[in-house]
Amino acid sequence: MIQIKSEREIGLMREAGRILAETRRMLEPFIRPGITTGELDRRAEQHIYESGATPSFKGYQGYPKSICTSINEVVVHGIPSGKRTLKNGDILSLDIGVTYKGYHADSAMTYPVGRVEPEIERLLDATLKSLYQGLEMAKPGNHVSDISHAIASFIKPYGYGVVEEFTGHGIGRELHEDPYVPNFGPPHQGPLLKPGMTLCIEPMVNLGTKEIDVLTDNWTTVTLDGKPSAHYEHMIVITETGYEILTALKKE
Predict the structure, then answer these.
(1) What's the number of domains the chain is made of?
(2) Predicted confidence (pLDDT) per residue in 28-67, tens digit
(3) 3-class SS of residue 236
(4) Is the omega angle on the peptide bond into residue 179 within 30 degrees of 0, that is, cis?
């Protein structure tokens, strides 16, 4: 069942989103060659706790860390490690979840580490733009799949693979709520969007095949052909006239 959030609930989620966005902004200068993903996790966890919130991911279904750090061919759920060091030419998808007074926020961004190849820059640019193409359809009276179709239609000319096993989702008191928000499919399907719905829109786009594989740790998800993947996600609330991003700072 899709939950329509009250103004009080949206306010708490807005604060969770602000803390998340500030955590991301704090981490960005450290995303450079030579740092370990374990160090990024440590800094994120400390900042979240010091902000009066808790990391949504830590302990979620047994997940061992506070953020997800997915490098290159890792699509999602890369586990931070003190043994995994970023190097020039990598890309890092940084996925962060924050809980504030019982309400969650969730957002992801993909960053180049140092200088990356032009084809990788194009992948990141196209995936980010596809997120905003989807968001343009996030308004009352549209269907959930209008978002999905906009993302897929934007990506199709590039020939990239759009991951189908993982989707966007509702969010609130639970990290994952109804409805699912796929990044593919026909328009005008699924639930109608209504003011007060809170959703995470998150295209995951692969340079090559859309096919993926989950490694033996049951978390780390990689592209089947070993080519890089990009992931961008914002949490939004549907308003009377469109949407509001809850996981971005005003100056972003």
Answers:
(1) 1
(2) 999 999 999 999 999 999 999 999 999 999 999 999 999 9
(3) strand
(4) yes
Looking up residue 84, the CATH number of its domain turns out to be: 3.90.230.10
Residues with Cβ within 8 Å of 234's Cβ and at least 6 positions away in sequence, in order, are: 107, 131, 135, 200, 201, 202, 245, 246, 247, 248
Rounded to a whole number of angstroms, the distance between the first and last alpha carbons of the chain is 33
Secondary structure of residue 74 in the 3-state scheme: strand
* DSSP helix, strand, coil percent of the chain (3-state; round to 5): 30, 25, 45
> Alpha-carbon distance 142 to 30, whole Å?
40
Whole-model pTM over 0.90: yes
Please report whether residue 252 resides in a domain.
no
Pairing between β-strand 103-112 and β-strand 198-201 as defined by DSSP bridges: unpaired
3-state secondary structure of 224: coil
| In-domain check, residue 2 | no
